[in-house]
Structures are given as structure tokens and as C-alpha cells.
Specification:
About 40% of the residues lie in helices and about 10% in strands. The relative contact order is 0.08.
Length: about 250
């Protein structure tokens, strides 16, 4: 019990559940790719799920776990497609195993796909806690409410922000520092689509910013580095940043 100077009892928010969520998220991630690990830790993972939901005052934990567990095969299949996109795109990648073991962008996508399934089950708070754990580990902030298609590639990961109502379709590639955000930040826009739609086969290079719920980036488009986009771009376009820097010839 915590009491302030006015002798008022302050509400308990069970902050310690954050540690359990970190463990739970690791258990899910490891279990997706390691059958022996999952055999040994499946029961512990389910127990952590029950503890978390109890802390969050969510009922029907066993029923929700049963539904959630049934999504794992589909999640794994999607992640295998994502991993293949990494292997086929990044020239620095030497093997598919390297993607699973060493790529922070893939780790961020994995936690996103796991947390997105919880959003679909209408489980509150836990999906956001999982995404914030991944954010801290990978430097990539993907809201679990975003809708992301197959064969998604994130290179380098650091500094990427993907907002709640973002729609990303298939075969999209995103590089470090990209923001897919809202053009306004107002509480009354909670139920409005605030973030852009990225169509199939789009590539978005480093530090590009795309803002607005009405913005659609058309199929097969390339968004160059450091570009800021606030209006829709037609299919098959190339958008580049025109630098105003002047290179002065070296004296002497």
C-alpha cells in the first residue's frame, strides 16, 4: 500500500507485471522456432499468460489461451515468409539461420505478429506491453494494431515507428529511421485511421517519413531516403529528396 502526503491511498497498477510480460514474450518467441524449448516451457508459458491476465483483470484466461495457441502455426508460417524476404533482400545475410538468430528487424516483426493476434482476441494492454518490450530490445516501435501483410522486411531496425492504424500490404521493405505516422495528434481521432497505407512491393528507404491516414503509397513505388510524404503517391513512382547542399571544391 502506498499513501501520499494527504493520507490518500494511491491506486496499485501492478507494475511488476512488466517483468512477467518480458519473460512471456521471450518464451513465445523461442517456442515458435525451437520445438524442444516449447515442449519444456509450454506449461510455464501458459501459466505466465494466466498470471498476466489476472493482473490485468481479464477473465476467461484458459479459453483465451486455447484460442491464442491455435494461431501459432499461422504466425510461424508468416514469419518464415518474412525471414525468406530478409535472406533474399539483404546482401549481408549469409543464411536463413542468421535471420532467425541475429536480425533485430526480424525479432521486432515476430513480436508484432504475436501481439497482433492478442489484439484480435480483444485482450487489452498486454499486446502493447509486448510491443514496448520489443521496442526496447530492437529499437523498432510497431503498434500491435497495425495490419501487416506477408514477406515484410525491416533492415537495421533502429528508429522505425509504425503507427496503430497503418496498413502495410505484401512484399514491403523498410529501412532504418522510417516513420509511418499521423499528421495530427488529437485524442478525438482515436477511432479514425490516422496512419498511411502502403501497397504491395513498396520500398521505403532510410529516414523517410510518411504521415496521414488518407495517404496511400501505390504499388511498386520507391520512397527515397529523407523524404517527407503527406499526400498519396501513385503506383510505380520514385520519390526522392532534392538536397540543397552545395559541394565546394577543396582548395589547394
Amino acid at each position: 500500500m502506498i499513501i501520499d502526503r494527504k493520507n490518500t491511498v494511491l491506486k496499485n497498477y501492478s507494475i511488476c507485471v512488466k517483468e512477467i510480460v518480458e519473460t512471456f514474450t521471450k518464451q513465445l518467441f523461442y517456442g515458435l522456432f525451437d520445438e524442444d524449448y516449447w515442449t519444456e516451457n509450454k506449461t510455464k508459458t501458459a501459466e505466465n499468460f494466466y498470471i498476466i491476465l489476472k493482473k490485468l483483470a481479464v477473465t476467461n484466461a484458459e479459453e483465451l489461451w486455447s484460442k491464442y495457441e491455435k494461431t501459432f502455426v499461422e504466425v510461424r508460417n508468416k514469419l518464415d515468409l518474412d525471414a525468406r524476404a530478409f535472406e533474399n533482400t539483404d546482401p549481408a545475410c549469409k543464411s536463413i539461420e542468421e535471420v532467425y538468430l541475429a536480425y533485430p528487424g526480424f525479432h521486432a516483426i515476430a513480436v508484432y505478429r504475436l501481439s497482433h493476434e492478442l489484439i484480435k482476441l480483444n485482450i487489452p494492454i498486454l499486446p502493447r506491453m509486448m510491443s514496448e518490450y520489443a521496442h526496447g530490445v530492437t529499437g523498432t516501435d510497431i503498434h500491435p494494431g497495425a495490419e501487416i501483410g506477408s514477406s515484410f522486411f525491416i533492415d537495421h531496425a533502429t528508429g522505425i515507428v509504425i503507427g496503430e492504424t497503418t496498413v502495410i500490404k505484401n512484399n514491403v521493405k523498410i529501412y532504418q529511421g522510417v516513420t509511418l505516422g499521423g499528421i495530427q495528434v488529437k485524442k478525438e481521432l482515436t477511432a479514425v485511421k490516422r496512419h498511411p497505407t502502403i501497397e504491395n512491393n513498396v520500398t521505403i528507404y532510410a529516414n523517410a517519413t510518411i504521415l496521414g491516414g488518407d495517404v496511400i503509397i501505390g504499388t511498386n513505388t520507391i520512397i527515397g531516403a529523407n523524404v517527407c510524404v503527406t499526400q498519396s503517391i501513385p503506383p510505380n513512382s520514385v520519390v526522392t529528396y532534392q538536397s540543397e547542399n552545395k559541394i565546394v571544391k577543396k582548395r589547394g
